[in-house]
Amino acid sequence: MDSVPSFILPPELWLQILEVDSLSPTHLADLWSNIRPVSRVYKAYVEQIFTKKYLPTLCLSLSLPRRDPNTGILLHELAVPDAEVTMQAVHVEGQFFITSTLPRTRRGMSMEDMTQRGLLTKKRLDTATSVWMWFGGAQNRGKGRQVKMPIDVEWDEQDKVWKAKVEWKKLSSSYWQARNGRSKLARQ
Questions:
Q1: Which of 24, 84, 136, 179 might form a disulfide with 140, Cβ 3.0–4.6 angstroms?
Q2: Does the pTM of the predicted model rise above 0.85?
Q3: Which domain of life is it from (predicted)?
């Protein structure tokens, strides 16, 4: 009886192959949207690549308008400079991605001062009208996409920043759907 050749590659080789495929944004989208759903093994490999290589570069920008977008009613008396708050990667805890604001805005205002003055409150940040997401740090902001994702923020008294805990797989799926123009959620 002839033996059947084994084409199983060790995990280290699969990770290298998939990492090379993730170097361009188009391939990164395919990696998440097309390769990840193929099997549990591919899903684990792709998620490992994302947690080690891409989540640390993830940024979120929360849009904070003063008026309700549907009614035009004034919700917040004080304006936030640039009407947005940017959050950057801190670390991954299992299925959650922890992100935080920088201690100061691009204009140099401190988060602590804006929070004490009532410019930034938990309610205001939790009701952000949109979340702009991108990978690669500040220089790649223009390559981001608006995503639908509830953000739950908490004030960190020790670091004097706002922190959010987000389900990173849902956030990533929402990003790639927006980027690919899909309306339905990709497989979580």
A1: 136
A2: no
A3: Eukaryota
